[in-house]
Amino acid sequence: MRSILSWFVFCTFALSLLGNTADALTLSVNTTTDTLDINPGDGLCQDVTSSCSLRAAVMETNALPSADIIQLQEFSYPLTLAGKDDDSGELGDLDIAGTVIIRGLGQSSQVSAGSLDRVFDVLPAAALALENLVVRNGSVLPDGFGGGIYVHAGGALSLDHVTIRDCEALYGGGIYNRGWLTGDRVSLTGNTANLLSAPGSGGGLYADDTVDNAILLTRSLIAGNSAGADGGGIYNGGNNDYYAPLGGSLYLENVTISDNSANRGAGLFLKTGSRIYLVNCTVIRNSNTAMSNGAGLTAIDAAAFDFLNTLVAENDNSLGLSNCSQIYDSSLIPYNSINATYFNQGFPYGYNLSDDGGCFSDGAPASLLVDDALVSDVLIAPSNLAGAGTYPLLEDSPAIDSADPDNFPEEDVFGTIRPRGDAPDIGAFEFIPTVPGEDPPTTPVPVAPTNGSTTSSTNVTFTWEISTDPDGGEVSYLLEISQSSRFLGEVLSYQIDSQGNGTLLSALGGAALLLLGLGWAGRSHRRLFVITLLSGLLASGLFLTSCGGGGGGGGSSEPAPETLSFSVFNLETDTTYFWRLTAKDDDNDTSNPSQVRYFTTPD
Questions:
Q1: Which of 75, 81, 137, 342 is 20 to 30 A off residue 408, Cα-Cα?
Q2: SS3 of 473-520
Q3: Predicted local distance difference test score (pLDDT) of residue 437
């Protein structure tokens, strides 16, 4: 049970870093100029012109003990003060020495280093949460670590709807991790780890070979990254100890690793002592530049790893199809005794699929190991927030309805509820079949409050475009309001009929929402209970306070034909809320959740 213990330490420690919000400040950045704060620690974000720059806000939060919030607008924030290897926060990258949330407004909120340095440097004992923004154009070549973000040992990084792209380093083009990293809807794209004179590793993500680092990613995309040596998408360093795999913990759920390139292990490269668990992941179309095998997954004596409902397909080297190298499931000798001791403590594995039969021997039916095309072209989630994407399954893919019927995350990478057929699908994507007479309603479209807006009061009217039922049934709605974009912690849930009349269902909290948020409640997921709960605890560590009291009331009695409205009262002041809708027809067929929108109530 050592692996579970390490996850527990990981989660509780990270929560302790991220949880001090009692005296939190919200600093609104109002200039794109890269300037210094004139008096860090006075509670004011001010440069010499009395403006609040991003760097000045970071300097201010570094000097304060609370977990503060920095709010960006829909602009690009370039770093222009040169000075690599400076940890004062005044030059080069943005050094994070305290505890801070930096919150953007989506793809238009960008922090760029312009190849001046990396973008963020999370120092030991510091904690950084990034939400709804893009990190780009960081560079620490010719010999540096972490082109986009460097997480030092003892540091914690949380990513929520974040894109990290076009960054470069010798190791860890996008992220170099020695601490604790968790992320949901993270996109690592177009990052590189390479130098002609010294080929690098970990184009998208590099996990250092230490017992102290751990990574948990859900609903994410690692695509189009490259490395001159190993691990174009991910390089996991383990801990260099074959007989004691206590470090290099990597948990991936609903993650797509695609179109990456490297000399070895273009998708995922696992070193000695790694501990890996992939659940409903898609590893596809990665390419080794040399003749080495294992373009999708390569392991070097990686002693503890399991895969559940994972698709590995169409990966190749210079000679042709080559999905995996040295990947063995945990039941095989000589790996079984080590895995049984250090990782495989009752966690489910199997129901995986590869198109050459060379990755898994865990009892997958032979009929699933086929050469047919499994997916169509890449699909990116439609959202104005930074997010992720995946390859959707073709209608006749053997991955459809072939996953473990008892163990699976109940949402796919896009939020589609599993299963949509007789059983869940293998991979990050859940195919939605067309069944006459059983079509779900169209997905509702949020209208107001608009994304990133500040409402006029704590009484808020929500408006959305109505959904229609292809089968002609009546449509009702579930409105969810939360202080977490993952709808964890306490959530206000309202059931609203087609006329805009609503009822408060519940304000769920604690472990119940953690389980619902990661989608493992309500089915036979007992073997995954511990790791999922702990993962949820970490994922919910984004500084939640209790949700506003009360609310409800009917919408307009005569709403416009194309929209519907519903009012909620007495939300908390000066608080950011996220909201989404799901439509349901009178046959209980449900739509996909709408896009998530968020707003802030006035002080």
A1: 342
A2: CCEEEEEEEECCCCCCCCEEEEEECCCCCEEEEEEECHHHHHHHHHCC
A3: 65
Q: Could you tell me which residues are beta bridge partners of residue 443?
A: none
Q: Please give the Cα distance from 221 to 378 (Å, whole number).
A: 11
Rounded to an integer, what distance in angstroms lies between the CA atom of residue 161 and that of residue 378?
Answer: 19
Please say whether the beta carbons of 387 and 187 come within 8 A.
yes
pLDDT confidence of residue 346? 61
Per residue, the 3-state secondary structure of 536-583, as one string, reads HHHHCCCCCCCCCCCCCCCCCCCCCCCEEEEEECCCCCCCEEEEEEEE
The residue count of the chain comes to 603
CA dihedral of residues 94, 96, 100, 103 (deg, nearest 10): 30
Contacts (Cβ under 8 Å, ≥6 apart) of 51: 30, 31, 33, 35
Euclidean distance between CA atoms 268 and 212, whole angstroms:
20
Tokens 């992320």 sit at which residue? 183
Mean pLDDT by 10 residues, the chain (603 residues): 35 46 80 95 94 97 91 94 85 94 90 93 95 94 92 94 95 95 93 84 92 87 94 88 67 93 93 83 91 84 75 84 70 47 62 74 38 48 60 83 90 86 91 75 90 90 91 90 78 91 68 30 32 35 31 42 88 89 87 83 89
pLDDT of residue 307: 82
Neighbours of 115 (CB within 10 A): 15
> Amino acid identity of 602?
P
From the centroid of its chain, how far is CA 170?
24
Residue that has been written with the tokens 């190298």 in this structure: 325
Q: Is 39 helix (H, G, I), strand (E, B) or coil?
A: coil
511, 127, 104, 110: CA torsion to nearest 10: -140
* Confidence (pLDDT) at 511: 30
Task: Please give the backbone phi and psi of residue 156, each rounded to the nearest 5 degrees, phi first.
Answer: -135, 135
8-state DSSP, 9: H
What are the b/e assignments for 533-568, b being 16+ CB within 10 Å?
Answer: bbbbbbbbbbbbeebbeebebebeeebeeebbbbbb
